Amino acid sequence: MRHTRKTAAFLTILLASVGFGQEGQPRENVTASGVIKGVRPGVLAVLTEQGEQWLVKIPDRPQDISFVASANPNWLRPGMLVKFKNTFDAKGRPAATVRQLEVITLRPDTQLGLIPDSQFGGGATGLFSSEEPAKKQSAPETMSFTVAGTLRGFKDGNLLVAAGNMPVQSQLDERATISVDVSDYSLAREGDTVELTGWYYLGHRDRVFSNRLSISSKEKLGMEEGKEKKVPTKKEPATKDDVEKALEDLFSS
Q1: Who wins on pLDDT, 16 or 204?
Q2: Given 2.120.10.30, 3.40.630.30, 2.40.110.10, 2.40.50.140, which CATH number is that of 2-65+184-247?
């Protein structure tokens, strides 16, 4: 009850001036760390390490947002962008199980496709082909690749990934670890930690425009039962009206 009254009082103070500031006012840059207290479209409620309570506007560019966590296999869904390493024989059949899988976001430096881990390029000539490898070649029996592409199917641990124009199958190991690094801030929950850089209008330190945001969660995705799992999707930047509307109920839950 005390927490509810304190939250309501904080909300009243913040909403005394609903907007994030006015154009033309002096600005101050800021770098901070803290804990997330609430998530709404386009805005986060953050309690900083210094005990300040801020409303933080999400960066407009998805590439400036990072949400990092781990996940259970039941959280995986077709359409996600995934990345893993595995060893394949000359016909493209997996020679091992996948021990580590990453769920990622397409960023400027992301390379998709089937990428040989070895510099021995000639060994990849006959791989993933129905043709028998030429006997004259001294290609290795297996080669290690990094597979990066769209998850097309996942059933009973079997991964089907479209790595560029190449369909690739692999089996997810029962003890595999799944890491997540995506630009979907809506996956964040109360208690997750956040690091940010941004700025605020002087006189409005509690309303920050972030230009880079990094969220870390210790809670595994896919742990909740009976609820629909969230899937990383591309989101349109929130408008000013969206942000202001979100402020009305940010701390009410």
Answers
A1: 204
A2: 2.40.50.140
